[in-house]
Design brief:
Number of domains of chain C: 3
Number of helices of chain B: 17
Structural class of chain C: alpha+beta
Chains: A mainly alpha (about 280), B alpha/beta (about 600), C alpha+beta (about 280)
Largest sheet of chain B: 7 strands, mixed
CATH superfamily of the largest domain in chain C: Alpha-helical ferredoxin
Strand content of chain C: 5-15%
Structural class of chain B: alpha/beta
Order of helices and strands of chain C: EEHEEEEEHHHHHHHHHHH
Radius of gyration of chain C: 22 Å
Radius of gyration of chain B: 23 Å
CATH topology of the largest domain in chain C: Fumarate Reductase Iron-sulfur Protein, Chain B, domain 2
Shape of chain C: elongated
Distance between the termini of chain C: 63 Å
Oligomer: heterotrimer
Strand content of chain B: 15-25%
Number of strands of chain B: 21
CATH superfamily of the largest domain in chain B: FAD/NAD(P)-binding domain
CATH class of the largest domain in chain B: Alpha Beta
Helix content of chain C: 25-40%
Bound molecules: flavin-adenine dinucleotide, iron/sulfur cluster, FE2/S2 (inorganic) cluster
Helix content of chain B: 25-40%
Strand order of the largest sheet of chain C: 2-1-5-3-4
CATH architecture of the largest domain in chain C: Orthogonal Bundle
CATH class of the largest domain in chain C: Mainly Alpha
Largest sheet of chain C: 5 strands, mixed
């Protein structure tokens, strides 16, 4: 028998009307949970807040983001990379021209910011901890009405894959910066603690980007059958275990970006000395 | 005037397990209107708990396999008193039914070349069980459930059929039921009724069955005057959990043994080698070395004794425990952790892993499980015609566990799920055709009122018996007197107990009102449990031999003469207990010569 | 042995309250055992659903100390027994009695899922599928329909009106299993977006947290479905690739017709319910 004949069948009479409303059981309380459910949203909110405050401050500094030849190093803060304005201390390519007079970080930060804002993990994190929708599982939503991601502006979350494409380019740029940090003082190869920090930064950002849900979908997940697409299956199969740890990579890379910037900032300002390995 | 609602269908199917759903789908495909009733929510029926797999000789793993081998295994497992025609149809049609499930969306585990993978189970000569990890029943019921919902079958959930209704010439033409939620009555008129109510295990204390398995269908059929056969054959599954007490009886799938698990006693000895019966000696390994080899070499080695049919293994475990060689909590050890890798176990037996981890704190990839026999399945049931699943009462059909004959004295693992779909389909088809030739009957209000008044009587008394107490005592009694090993004296005692329980049930009283009242439901379910328990006890008394799921200490050997007879239970009178129940030995249908020949030729 | 205090919700549509029951503690018990003991000894008419007692049927869902759980898989030993244990019915569904709720909403949504539509069989009468192709969907087939995910999902838990336009995580799992079935030929992506409220889910993962079968509902079902919906609607690049590659997959427009059974919107599900009426009037 074919599937069509089933779809054509009509439900036999006697449909009991379904009442959606009805009285709910249990006491009318926000939650009956007795554990410390507020701990997690609180921690998330604080973590994100610390980063946002630091990153905003650092982005507007417009100084100390590059450790250059004067110090025999080549370190560019990831918050400022790629540096595209003419006022850059370290010019990637002066795309923006000389009219750009504020911090060059502002020009590029919106892209990684967009990636993280629309990231499936961060969405969960801020919907829960900032918006309280819901603050924790089985704890009442803080809002009276709810439309999810079906209306403007939240419908824009659907554009996440475009930020992923850009994010992939940014991850490449960060790796490039890490490679550039191996540049020795007199043209050869050298390595300092900052190089290592930048390398870790490149790796973490790459892990974060490649474990992205959109990436997993685009590279293989969207297929109905894997058997006939061996390469894409291979990719999907390798990304899936990384994807399980997307949240971890999200936090590690976030923390490390800030830390890298801080390190470079301290070295550039002359507060600490960057130890050299070779 | 009685207060009730009424619905009309061409075919009424009672029970939404595998058998009921399959019957309903088939009847609906025939173009008749179908009503489906079940005591729980849709998709929660007992079938959902089936673990190991569904037996079908598809030959995907062993091309040598075919329906004849499956037929032969089934008959021998059933100690040759199965209805041969049912066993034959079952073996022939099971592969088609499995393929059909796949066509409806089921995803069975696969072989390397993309076909349905099959696994080993006790009593099956070849790896034959199509499966999905260890949750095959879930896959089956979900697939059928989606199919049923999409073909427009009316499902009445949480509704218990209390009595069948007959028209003036004795044809079953409907049923009186009540909604568990509201306690209100509903009269369902129909032109044919299919019983698919599953098992009876809830009358025993240690059981793998859920609260639903109270034998309602068996009782409804008995009350309707249908012939019942093989009621003495109750299968005790050899491996149920024994610890902690709250999960005692919970099933440990035979898949554990099929996938390499072995039974050991307290001394670490693989005792099954001491319990190989002559009937299976020729094809069972008698050394550990040969048994080990079998997992990889089916032609060169014979199967391990751990995979003997269930009745043999259950009796062996029982004997070991009695001899004082059991595990600390009165079972034996089932060990797979030391024999297979943790990965393999978690992949093949995920829900067993979880069940032990979460309920008993045992990591089965490391430690052995403690297991013991648990009441699992009743082979006996309503006598049906093999082709149409029609009972001896006109208008009444039966399929699934409630029907008897297919499995004889002992069911092989995996043969139930296939039974459900093979005979569920046949029952649905025959019922639809029967319905097409009939009109709806009418029932007098007086009749309905009599029935509803009887159902409500527990509310009218106060300070009487507690139904839960009666139930607990019944379970203890059946466990100790009508358990794995039976004797004449104990069975006679059991009959006396049952008579007392019936009388006590008359004095039961219920607190609260009709709305979702489990106490009241229990009181009504007890009518079925006592009726079925009586039938089992009477048949067990009459069968003076040991065979399959029926072991008599006073008659320890099979009796070839009794091997040609079915014990037939009949009842005439008023439900539940006003009337006479009788037991009559009747000859089993004789197998044609070409099938007999299958048992003579050496199958090696 | 020590005593445990259980606070069970007793009541029906006319209201209710927590009642305290004191029972002796016993070794190795799960919450459902204790509830059963109360039922057998102190409250014969206490309503509770259960079947398998092994986490296989998904009947015994309730909220234990505020957390949606299966009562048969929650061991007493893991609860703080020095305080009373509260057990309440699932919050999202209308109460019937005590711990039993009216979960028909779910069965209504189930009717609106376009069925599996396989191609014809191979010439040898079989279908060929490979384990790597079905692994994904098999995860979803583990669902025992306990509806705990539906219960915890704030979209309907806290916003009754959304029930008219939201299928809920259990059914996203069901859709995902069909969309990822290697043989299926239906396309349900537009339907998901337009009628099943896929966009309402804000991927906060509570469904994943409570699922007793440990199905990664959000990561493996919902997010891939969201991405599929983007493929079908918001992503011009995917659209162009589709045009060039001439996918055999039916395009969204054809899909709406192919699955005629579901053209009843969820909003019509609520016969006689205020919001649903409004929705109808608008249509
Ligand atoms: C733990 C376990 C594991 C198993 N594993 C396997 C296995 O691996 N392979 C295998 O082949 N078999 C297995 N079995 C056996 C098999 O699952 C059952 O025999 C089979 O599911 C019975 O199916 P059924 O359709 O006859 O009835 P059930 O699935 O039991 O369904 C009975 C239906 O009837 C309804 N019902 C009952 N009484 C009434 C009434 N009065 N009014 C209305 N409705 C009523 C119930 O609500 C239910 O819907 C297993 C059994 C158990 C318990
Ligand atoms: S992830 Fe989505 S579906 Fe799951 S609980 Fe949250 S909002 Fe509901
Ligand atoms: S997806 Fe998980 S939580 Fe939801 S109904 Fe299924 S098993 Fe329950
Ligand atoms: S970057 Fe987090 S999901 Fe894409
Ligand atoms: S009783 Fe079946 S899941 Fe709890």
């Amino acid at each position: 028998m074919s599937a069509q004949s089933v779809t054509a069948a009509q439900p036999a009479g006697h449909e009991t009307p379904v009442i959606l409303g009805g009285v709910r059981g249990g006491p009318n309380k926000k939650t009956l949970r007795t554990d410390r459910w507020w701990l997690q949203p609180l921690a998330t909110a604080s973590g994100l807040l610390v980063f946002v405050v630091y990153a905003t401050w650092a982005a507007f500094q417009n100084a100390n983001y590059y450790v250059g030849p004067a110090m025999h190093r080549d370190y560019l803060s990831p918050l400022y990379s790629p540096c595209l304005a003419q006022n850059c201390k370290y010019v990637w390519g002066p795309v923006l021209g000389s009219w750009w007079s504020i911090s060059p970080a502002i020009a590029v930060l919106i892209f990684p910011l967009g990636l993280r804002l629309t990231c499936y993990y961060y969405r969960k994190a801020y919907y829960r901890s900032y918006w309280g929708s819901p603050p924790a599982c089985a704890v009442a939503d803080a809002h009276r009405s709810y439309t999810g991601e079906t209306r403007f502006p939240l419908i824009l979350q659907n554009a996440h894959r475009w930020f992923f494409y850009i994010g992939a380019i940014f991850a490449g740029i960060n790796i490039f910066d890490a490679v550039a940090a191996f540049r020795g003082f007199s043209g050869g190869i050298g390595m300092g603690l900052g190089t290592l920090i930048l390398c870790i930064n490149g790796v973490l950002l790459s892990l974060y980007t490649i474990s992205c849900h959109s990436c997993r979908h685009l590279l293989g997940g969207q297929l109905r059958s894997f058997h006939t697409h061996r390469i894409r299956y291979w990719l999907w199969d390798k990304i899936t275990p990384l994807n399980k740890h997307h949240m971890l990579f999200a936090w590690l890379s976030l923390f490390w970006v800030a830390f890298t910037d801080l390190y470079i900032r301290l070295v550039a300002a002359g507060w600490i000395h960057d130890p050299r390995f070779f | 005037m009685a207060d009730y609602e009424q619905r009309d269908y061409d075919v009424l199917v009672i029970g939404a397990g595998g058998a009921g759903l399959r019957a309903a789908i088939e009847a609906r495909t025939e173009g008749v209107s179908v009503g489906l009733v079940c005591k729980s929510l849709l998709g929660k029926a007992h079938t959902v708990m089936a673990e190991g797999g569904i037996a079908a000789a598809m030959g995907n793993v062993y091309p040598e396999d075919n329906w004849k081998v499956h037929f032969r295994d089934t008959m021998r497992g059933g100690k040759m008193i199965n209805n041969w025609r049912m066993a034959q149809l079952h073996a022939q049609e099971a592969p088609d039914r499995v393929m059909e499930l796949e066509e409806w969306g089921a995803l069975f585990d696969r072989t390397a070349d993309g076909r349905i993978l099959q696994r080993d189970f006790g009593g099956h000569r070849y790896a034959r069980l199509a499966h999905v990890g260890d949750r095959t029943g879930l896959e089956m019921i979900r697939t059928l459930q989606h199919r049923a919902v999409q073909s427009g079958i009316d499902v009445m959930m949480e509704c218990k059929v209390y009595r069948l209704l007959k028209d003036d010439d004795g044809t079953v033409s409907g049923a009186v039921a009540y909604w568990r939620e509201s306690g209100r009555f509903i009269v369902i008129r129909s032109k044919a009724v299919v019983l698919a109510t599953g098992g009876v295990g809830k009358s025993w204390k240690i059981t793998s069955n859920s609260w639903e398995s109270t034998g309602d269908g068996h009782a409804l059929a008995i009350w309707a005057g249908a012939d019942m056969i093989d009621m003495e054959f109750v299968q005790f599954h050899p491996t149920g959990m024994v610890w902690p007490p709250s999960v005692r009886g919970l099933l440990v799938t035979e898949g554990v043994r099929g996938d390499g698990g072995v039974l050991r006693n307290r001394d670490g000895k693989r005792f099954m080698f001491d319990y190989i019966p002559p009937m299976f000696a020729a094809e069972t390994a008698d050394t550990e070395e040969e048994a080990e080899r079998w997992y990889t070499d089916r032609q060169g080695a014979r199967r391990p004794p751990d995979l003997l049919p269930r009745d043999e293994v259950a009796r062996a475990i029982n004997a070991e425990v009695k001899a004082g060689r059991g595990s600390p909590h009165g079972g034996v050890f089932l060990d797979i952790g030391s024999r297979r890798s943790a990965d393999y176990i978690k992949r093949r037996l995920p829900s067993m892993y979880k069940q032990f981890k979460e309920l008993a704190d045992v990591d089965i990839t490391v430690d052995p499980m403690e297991v013991g026999p648990t009441c699992h399945y009743i082979m006996g049931g309503v006598r049906v015609d093999a082709e149409t699943a029609a009972t001896t009462v006109p208008g009444l059909f039966a399929a699934g566990e409630v029907a008897g004959g297919m499995h004889g004295a002992n069911r092989l693992g995996g043969n139930s799920l296939s039974d459900l779909v093979v005979f569920g389909r046949r029952a649905g088809l025959a019922a639809a055709n029967y319905a097409k030739q009939r009109n709806l009957a009418t029932f007098s209000d007086k009749l309905i009122e009599e029935i509803t008044t009887a159902a409500l009587s527990p509310f009218s008394s106060e300070g009487g018996e507690n139904p839960y107490t009666i139930h607990a005592e019944l379970q203890d009694m059946m466990q100790s007197l009508v358990g794995i090993i039976r004797t004449h004296d104990e069975l006679v005692q059991a009959e006396e107990h049952l008579a007392r329980f019936k009388e006590r049930l008359g004095r039961v009283s219920i607190e609260g009102n009709r709305q979702f009242n489990p106490g009241w439901h229990m009181a009504l379910d007890l009518e079925s449990m006592l009726t079925v328990s009586t039938a089992v006890t009477m048949a067990a008394l009459e069968r003076k031999e040991s065979r399959g799921g029926h072991t008599r200490d006073d008659y320890p050997q099979p009796d070839p003469e009794l091997g040609k007879l079915n014990m037939v239970i009949r009842f005439s009178g008023e439900p539940p207990f006003r009337g006479e129940m009788s037991v009559t030995p009747e000859p089993i249908p004789e197998m044609p010569d070409e099938l007999k020949a299958l048992f003579e030729e050496q199958q090696h | 042995m020590s005593e445990i205090i259980m606070r069970l919700w007793r009541g029906d549509a006319n209201g209710g309250s927590f009642q305290e029951y004191r029972v002796p503690a016993q070794e190795g018990e799960v919450v459902l055992d204790v509830v059963h003991r109360i039922q057998a000894t102190q409250a014969g008419d206490l309503a509770v659903r259960w079947n398998c007692k092994a986490g296989k049927c998904g009947s015994c869902s309730a909220e234990v100390n505020g957390k949606p759980r299966l009562m048969c898989m929650t061991r007493m030993a893991e609860l703080p027994l020095d305080q009373p244990i509260t057990i309440a019915p699932m919050r999202t569904f209308p109460i019937m009695k005590d711990l039993v709720t009216d979960v028909r909403f779910n069965f209504e949504v189930a009717k609106r899922v376009p069925p599996f539509a396989p191609p014809p069989r191979q010439p040898d009468g079989t279908y060929r599928m490979f384990q790597e192709d079905i692994d994904r969907a098999q995860e979803f087939h583990k669902c025992i329909e306990c509806f705990l995910c539906q219960d915890v999902c704030h979209v309907i838990r806290d916003h009754e009106e959304n029930k008219a336009r939201y299928a809920g995580p259990r059914f996203f799992v069901r859709f995902a299993e069909l969309e990822m079935h290697p043989l299926d030929t239906n396309d349900r992506r537009l339907l998901l977006k337009e009628r099943m409220g896929l966009g309402m889910c804000n991927i906060t993962k509570c469904c994943t947290e409570v699922c007793p079968e440990e199905i990664h509902i959000t990561d493996n079902a919902i997010i891939p479905l969201k991405e599929r919906a983007v493929d079908a609607t918001y992503d011009p690049l995917a659209f162009i690739i589709r045009k060039i590659a001439r996918r055999k997959r039916p395009l969204p427009a054809e899909e709406a017709q192919a699955s005629a059974i579901v053209t009843t919107p969820l909003s019509e599900l609520a016969d006689g319910h205020g919001d649903a009426k409004k929705a109808k009037a608008k249509a």
